[in-house]
Design goal:
This protein has helices at about 15-25, 45-55, 70-80, 100-110, 125-145, 165-170, 180-185, 210-225, 225-255, 265-295; strands at about 5-10, 35-40, 60-65, 85-90, 115-120, 155-160, 190-195, 305. With about 300 residues, the chain is of the alpha/beta class. It has an eight-stranded mixed sheet, sandwiched between helices. Helix 3 crosses helix 6 (about 165-170). The mean pLDDT is about 80.
Length: about 300
């Protein structure tokens, strides 16, 4: 069985050598037929030069450089598409996920599982990132009707997929996508391996708050139309409240002779309803924007250079 290990590389010039070393140490315990696919996501450092050095030192290392920075998930897709293994193991380049767990991933695959996820009880992130991840997971789980694509913040990109799953993954047509959500959607038999999550080998995460919010928004908009449904129900709720209030005014007028007056209350009501309308127009616009991006049918990445 040939094993492909795919790792997207970004801002990791001081990690590449150690990454290849640790992967090699573990994968050679499992098979003599393997490859390490490093995908440079065109970061502003010398990661590509370090990848080229490893390709020259080890013929098992394949380097792929994208033409610009497309993001982590398109980089994963580029690596998977250019892998040739019977199974593909995906892992981040920061070594927070230890390659030593490859043995357990393969063991679960041998049991008939075509997707093997890794589960972390504790994530080695700061409190703010852990908190925002928890909030996103709760919101996403509520918004998505299809629970097969439910989001679990303790499951990371470190995973194993069979060649069949890999082929379906690379043919997935979404322009904006999340690797793990696509795997969930595919629905193959899967299992989990519990692992420890370590501190980064060097440097800090490239995911800023704005990038995290962008990924969260894309994940919700592209995977759920529940916001549109919510706007409809909320509209009915407002209409019902308006009807009740109208009845109250009629009763006060005919029986209590107490009619509410005041332009300030009327202006406040108009502004409030106008704000609600604008909010849901924005939500509708987000979905239209998603359709617009999808129908463009742009490629998720463009390969500039490959070194075998």
């Amino acid at each position: 069985m040939k094993i492909s290990v795919v790792s997207p590389v970004y801002l990791a010039e001081n990690i590449v050598k150690e990454l290849v070393k640790r992967i090699t140490e573990e994968v050679t315990k499992l098979t003599d037929d393997y490859e390490i696919v490093l995908v440079d996501d065109c970061g502003p450092d010398n990661s590509w030069q370090k990848i080229k050095e490893q390709c020259e030192l080890n013929e098992r290392v394949k380097g792929i450089r994208l033409s610009r920075n497309f993001g982590q998930h398109p980089a994963i897709k580029a690596g998977v598409q250019n892998s040739t293994g019977d199974v593909v193991i995906i892992m981040d380049c920061d070594l927070q996920d230890d390659p030593v767990y490859m043995k357990e991933l393969i063991a679960e695959y041998d049991k008939g599982n075509e997707i093997v996820y890794t589960y972390k009880d504790k994530r080695a992130h700061g409190w703010f990132k852990n908190m925002t991840s928890y909030i996103f997971a709760k919101i996403f789980s509520w918004l998505v009707d299809n629970k097969s694509v439910d989001y679990n913040r303790n499951i990371g990109a470190y995973s194993l997929i069979s060649r069949r799953v890999a082929d379906h993954f690379v043919s997935f047509p979404d322009y904006k996508f999340h690797y793990l959500i696509v795997l969930r959607w595919l629905g193959y038999q899967s299992s989990y391996v519990k692992i420890a999550h370590h501190e980064r080998f060097e440097g800090k995460s490239s995911y800023t708050l704005s990038k995290l919010l962008e990924r969260a928004f894309e994940g919700i908009v592209y995977q759920s139309n529940k916001l549109l449904k919510t706007s409809v129900f909320f509209g009915f709720f407002l209409a019902f409240c308006a009807l009740i209030y109208a009845l109250v005014i009629v009763v006060n007028y005919f029986y209590l002779e107490d009619v509410p007056t005041g332009w300030s209350s009327l202006a406040t009501l108009i502004l409030f309803l106008s704000g609600i309308i604008l909010i849901f127009i924005g939500i509708l616009g987000a979905y239209i924007g998603s359709v617009f991006e999808q129908v463009k049918n742009r490629p998720q990445y463009i390969i500039k250079e490959i070194i075998n």
